[in-house]
């Protein structure tokens, strides 16, 4: 056999991948062609990966599936746009960044808002480059000229406008929600930052009307607004719904007995007091039963004026006094001195965190969910993914109002402004002067307290410049505005929930100015590409993201943001275990790309997968798929050697070519159908099996037997490379250039079914 010039025996991906990617990019085909009337468009908005994280195998999965669809539709000659972006991932990113600060002996409290924000910004910018580079290594043919970031000015502007529109439409309100508050640091913490610690504390059994009940926190009894039992607890069923009279330390009062699933019948006596203002579970119970929120611990960590003689005592001192007084009055029946339980502590100073009610901004979701449900009912959005359409409808029907306030710096600051009275005369009467602030003074020392009082010692400017956080009472007056409405206004320090901006992602990315239109037509990206074609993402973010995008898209534009949703499953390890750092079974997609090639990883990730179902991937599978890359390479090598040996003059002698043509046409038809129906895993299986077992094993052999002409073998190989390109773009492009160097790039070719029949 004559050795083929220029084609090695094996496909060496390292030699080709980066060069091929550069050529694709240079060709300009990642960007949609100029607008023309009547064009068919195909659009995917990329789920923005967190800007602070390197890519994991789940990302590699979405990149592959979306790239397959994008490449396919590009070959169908549609105006195809894959719009990439990255997400600031508020709480998570700030947390990761603060861990880095901690390693340097610093914390967020050493910086004012602007300084901290800028530092996180720089950190994220550096990191997001990594994620983008990794997606490129996988072959992502996204339009990088349209890359968006959730915190860039154009996006922030639109997100702020949305809030203003919702305020005008009466969809925004303020309400109380519990936060994890450290009275010592004067700030609230996200769940991620809370240190949960087991410890022993006394468990007190106290007389409570006709009952006896157990509590670790007798000092909160002044905030009780009900007692509760489990609905199935026979011991107390006759009490449910009745009012009881309780003799307490401040006199007699009445409470209703309620039944709630959250009560643990095994705890204490099975009866619990409900203190919605100071316990997360009780808060939830309170929400369900419409209980009053009675705040008896202030943000200074001391008991409030609702507690009579206990007012002004710290929680610790109040507990001691309450215990003594209960004992003295014979209201304490027993004490379990060594009760083991978990307490939430401040990661910074170790103080026990107080769950405290803090006003936050909410969106009324009812009208928004109705819009999304209507779009689903009309079939304007179709869901692909094993029953997740039903889950989505269930979520939409049961969604509670959406808390969009987050007590962090890293996000879009809520455009709400509080007017502060700086005249020093009316501070006692102005509700806004009761706003609690924390700020760094000129000496960079943290100062906190009510702003009205602080204005006696500090200027408004000093407070505003060093501001870290403010907390306005529920009755505070505020203005919603794009910019500072006047000299002595302070802006809300809460930022939007990350999902508030990402829920608008399809709208704001396409609306953002500066997207490069190659033509001079006045058609905007939004007019051209909205609603988008497919939203492809993991099913685990359905309620956070997909559902909210539907609600917000419908609300802002009157149209659902995507016609199809494709949910991919979780990628598990070879044994079917969830990948996790602690298990040590996390596969690094980049390492696999380096070892086996991007095509091998892509095939391993999609082969035989079904929408909505989890799949297993490990090194063995990827290794196996490298053999497929080699198979394609060798198929091409056969043709090249054949050319050199026979000059492509072999004719068929058996009149059998027709049979093979028919079969190939059927394969084309099947793959086309499967891709149109978003059966991507099946389509991958079809091209893999047919290429390997039919084309290589049968047709190439038939050519040797002169059942298939050389001319058609060349034609057939061209068709195959086009069919395979969306799945394994690198090796097919490499082969294409080996076999047909005079032709344009494979990625710019037309899909076989679109060609005239041979
Ligand atoms: Zn603290």
Give the CATH superfamily of the domain at 187-357: Valyl/Leucyl/Isoleucyl-tRNA synthetase, editing domain
Question: What's the mean pLDDT score?
Answer: 89
Mind telling me the CATH class of the domain at 187-357? Alpha Beta
Q: Count the DSSP helices.
A: 22
- Measure the end-to-end span: 31 Å
Report strand %: 15-25%
Associated small molecules: zinc ion
**Largest sheet, described in full?**
4 strands, antiparallel
Examine the coordinates and then state which fold CATH places here, giving the name of the CATH topology of the domain at 187-357.
Isoleucyl-tRNA Synthetase, domain 2
Derived structural class: alpha/beta
CATH architecture of the domain at 187-357, please? Answer: Alpha-Beta Complex
- The residue fraction in helices comes out at 25-40%
Name the strands of the widest sheet in spatial order.
Answer: 6-5-14-16
Radius of gyration: 32 Å
Query: What's the β-strand tally?
Result: 28
The global form is elongated
Low-confidence stretches: none
Task: Output the keywords.
758 residues; alpha/beta; Isoleucyl-tRNA Synthetase, domain 2; Isoleucyl-tRNA Synthetase, Domain 1; 4-stranded antiparallel sheet; 4-stranded mixed sheet; 22 helices; 28 strands; 19% strand; elongated; binds zinc ion
